[in-house]
Amino acid sequence: MNALTIDVEDYFHVEAFANVIGPNDWCRYPMRVESNTYRLLELLDRRAVRGTFFMLGWVAERCPSLVRQILDGGHEIGSHGYGHQMIGRGDEKTFRRDVGRAKSILEDQTGTKIKGYRAPSYSITSKTLWALEVLGELGFEYDSSIFPVHHDYYGIPDAPRFPHIKRLRNGGCIFEFPPSTLAAYGVNLPVAGGGYFRLFPYGLTAWAIRRINDKEKQPALVYLHPWEIDPDQPRVAAAWRSQFRHYQNLRATESKFTRLLDDFSWGPISEVLSRSWSATKSKCEVGEGL
User: Fold this and answer.
1) How would you write the pLDDT of the chain (290 residues) with one tens digit per residue?
2) Residue 207: Cβ within 10 Å count
3) Residues with Cβ within 8 Å of residue 212, at least 6 apart in sequence
4) Phi-psi region at 48: left, alpha or beta (left = phi > 0; alpha = psi -120 to 50)
5) Distances (CA, A) of 109 to 14, 116, 199
6) In angstroms, rounded to a whole number, what is the distance separating the alpha carbons of residues 36 and 4?
7) In 3-state terms, what secondary structure has residue 71?
8) CA end-to-end span of the chain, whole Å?
9) How far apart are CA 31 and CA 139, in angstroms?
10) C-alpha distances in angstroms, 23 versus 26, 43, 280?
11) What value, to the nearest 5°, has the Cα angle with vertex 177 and ends 210 and 158?
């Protein structure tokens, strides 16, 4: 089983447009995240596929019925923070306040403990590893924010490529489930979804996942955003590089995504991790990998 994850945010939240759309401007843009997420839920429900939805607190606050619909569909809800700001732009106090606010909103809405977290734009890097300590203190059990690649926004290139345990200073631990990569010629190549899924031919993505499953005997983790199946979303006036990153191949995403759902076995992160959960609980004491 592979881990299917959805980052529930809208098109105007993305880091590619952060230079032209600030948080104070978000309310000026028409929201499309709710209808796009309902479309994803429909695609998953047809195939009895369940996944992890990392909810942005800002969205959850405005779309509580969407949160309930996701939960009622049998999916896992994780936190994507509240205000979708790169962790490195603030400090520990700012991060704690943002994550705590989102966690409180989601737990109040769902009546369940929120166990998983994903940072905006995978912004837990070598400079912000302290964020894992905060997550542990706030009661999170797993994180999916460390992308083991080179990138101008994010990434720890030499981080482990597969699920593992991070030892915390307080003696506890947190599970880390990174987005999937392929190792080639000493470099980790991202194959996990998002812009890479839109850019690469579907056959390459499928080959990479099969290699991870069959050759490396590991689960893959992929991610998608609701706006990526919405080719008719408003166009934002931004630099060409940002527009390319955001708008490339939007019209092909939904059909590629349905093939991905049909061709592989999927589940929420917690279910994929649970297969090793009891064994890894004891390893927490020594910080071993899964």
Assistant:
1) 999 999 999 999 999 999 999 999 999 999 999 999 999 999 999 999 999 999 999 999 999 999 999 999 999 999 999 999 999 999 999 999 999 999 999 999 999 999 999 999 999 999 999 999 999 999 999 999 999 998 877 889 999 999 999 999 999 999 999 999 999 888 999 998 999 999 999 999 999 999 999 999 999 999 999 999 999 999 999 999 999 999 999 999 999 999 999 999 999 999 999 876 555 555 565 444 44
2) 14
3) 180, 182, 218, 219, 220
4) left
5) 24, 16, 36
6) 17
7) helix
8) 16
9) 31
10) 5, 30, 39
11) 85
User: Which residues are CB-contacts of 52 (< 8 A; sequence separation ≥ 6)?
Assistant: 3, 4, 5, 6, 75, 76, 77, 78, 116, 268, 269, 270
Q: What is the DSSP letter of 148?
A: -
d(CA 58, CA 81): 8
In the block, tokens 């880091």 appear at 15
Specify whether the CB–CB gap between 229 and 260 falls below 8 A. Answer: no
Q: How far is CA 39 from CA 177, 186, 192, 230, in A?
A: 26, 39, 21, 10
Q: Tokens in use for 111?
A: 């009546």
Return the H-helix or E-strand segment holding 92. helix 92-110
**Cα separation values, 119 from 27, 97, 161, Å:** 22, 14, 17
Distance CA 175, CA 132 (A): 10
Report the distance separating Cα 178 and Cα 121, nearest Å: 13
Best CA proximity match to 221, nearest among 156, 168, 270, 157: 270
Overall pTM surpassing 0.85 (yes/no): yes
Side chain identity, residue 75: H
Question: Strand 142-143 and strand 116-117: pairing?
Answer: parallel
Q: Which of 62, 58, 56, 123 is nearest to 88 (CA)?
A: 123
In the beta sheet, which residues pair with residue 3? 221, 267
Exposure string of 209-238, with b = 16+ CB inside 10 Å and e = fewer, is: beebbeeeebbbbbbbbbbbbbeebeebeb
Does an H or E element contain 263, and which? helix 250-263
